[in-house]
Structures are given as C-alpha cells and as structure tokens.
Design brief:
Rossmann fold, alpha/beta, 46% helix
Length: 231
C-alpha cells in the first residue's frame, strides 16, 4: 500500500469515526454483538455502524413490516434492521453456518429482538426456495431485502428478492465495488462475476429501478446497490 493510499485510509477512518460518534453511536447491545462475534472468531465483515444506521433509516422510511436478510453472520446488521420494525413486524434472516447462527441468536435475544426475528440455517438458495413455496401458498411479500452473502450467487439472490417482494419494495445489495474489479468484464473471480451479473439484472429488469453508490470508510473502498420494485 502506497504512503498516499495509507494516508487516505487514515482520513476515511477518521471521518467514519466522526460520523459514527455523532450520528450512529452503537449502544450496549450492538457493542456486545460485535464483541461476541469476535470472541467466536467470526470474520470481520459486518456492516459498519453508520452503514447499519443507513439500513435502519431506509427500512423506517420504507415503513417496512416484513424484512428479509440474506447473510446473518453474527446478527449485527440484523439488529439495526429489526429495530426499524413495528411491534407486529417480522424479519427473516438466512445464514449458511450453524455456528454463526448460534452467535446471532444470542445477540438478537440480548437486544430483545428474538420475538421479531427468525434465523433460518442452511444454503440460502434452498431456504429461498422454501420461502417461495410458503409465499405461493400464503402470499406475504417482503417490504425490504438486504443481500449480504456469498457474492457468486448475487444474481440468484436478486431474482429471489423479486419473487418475494411487492411493487414499492426496496432491495439493497452490499459490497458491489469489489475493490474496483467490478468494472472488469474479464475478471474471473466468482464474487466479481456474480456481482456484475446481479447489477446487469438490476439494470435490464423491467420491474426494477436501481442505482449503485461507491463508498469509502473503515471498510476501505466499497459500495452498495439500491433497487426499487416498480409498480
């Protein structure tokens, strides 16, 4: 890393710290969720506090009553999102690894959100197929979908999000910049290819209106895509 790049990273971190301390300061439950996730040796890939607050504000602005999260990890982003729900709301979050789900259950219970949330464990595409069958039998569309799982399957996750939402629903796809590699059509990395395919789907699908935003901060150079399901 060049000296200039290192300086930029320090500046990004300082600005993120300032924004977080001023506008998105984590409380005891959020801090404990990160602590327990680290103690359980979960990867350090959770959203930052200001990103979590953004998700919460988007869900609140949406008036979301049903939220779907693909990729639970330790439940940090789940806490931010679930706090946007009304008392009779529901959040379903999908996690591949049982050991991650176990940490998340403890974190959600400590935050007082276990009655509003449900963690389903297994391969996300299988869990989404099961949700699709439930939806076909008893339609209950999601108002907000947050996708933050394995990037190779991003286009499939977007497709399922479309099947499980309604006109007006929002879909957020995280980590779309891939260090800038997303612009390279010849990149063979599965995460880059999956992300490009998901963005292409968002761009051409007649039921979606989408944009993507680059970000810098404590997670480095990153970004997210935001799509609204058309009426």
């Amino acid at each position: 890393m060049s000296q200039q790049h290192q300086q930029h990273r320090q500046e990004w971190n300082a600005v993120d710290d300032y924004f977080t301390d001023l506008l998105a300061q984590p409380d005891d439950a959020l801090t404990a969720a990160l602590r327990d996730s680290e103690a359980a040796d979960l990867p350090h890939i959770n959203v930052t506090p200001n990103q979590g607050k953004l998700l919460q504000l988007l869900a609140l602005t949406q008036g979301a009553r049903r939220i779907l999260e693909i990729g639970t990890l330790g439940g940090y982003s789940t806490i931010w999102l679930a706090r946007a729900l009304p008392a009779d709301g529901r959040l379903i979050t999908l996690e591949y690894k049982p050991e991650h789900a176990e940490v998340a259950r403890g974190n959600l219970a400590r935050a007082g959100l276990d009655k509003l949330t449900e963690i389903r464990v297994g391969p996300a595409l299988e869990l989404l197929a099961a949700l699709g069958a439930e939806h076909a039998e008893n339609p209950a569309p999601f108002d907000f979908v947050f996708i933050d799982a394995d990037k190779a399957n991003n286009p499939h996750y977007v497709e399922w999000a479309l099947k499980l939402t309604r006109p007006g629903s929002l879909i957020v796809l995280d980590n779309v910049v891939r260090g800038g590699a997303v612009t390279d059509p010849d990149d063979t990395d599965p995460g880059v290819r999956g992300t490009r395919a998901a963005l292409d789907l968002m761009a051409r699908h007649p039921k979606l209106s989408a944009t993507a935003v680059q970000t810098v901060g404590t997670k480095g150079y990153d970004g997210f895509a935001l799509a609204r399901v058309r009426d």
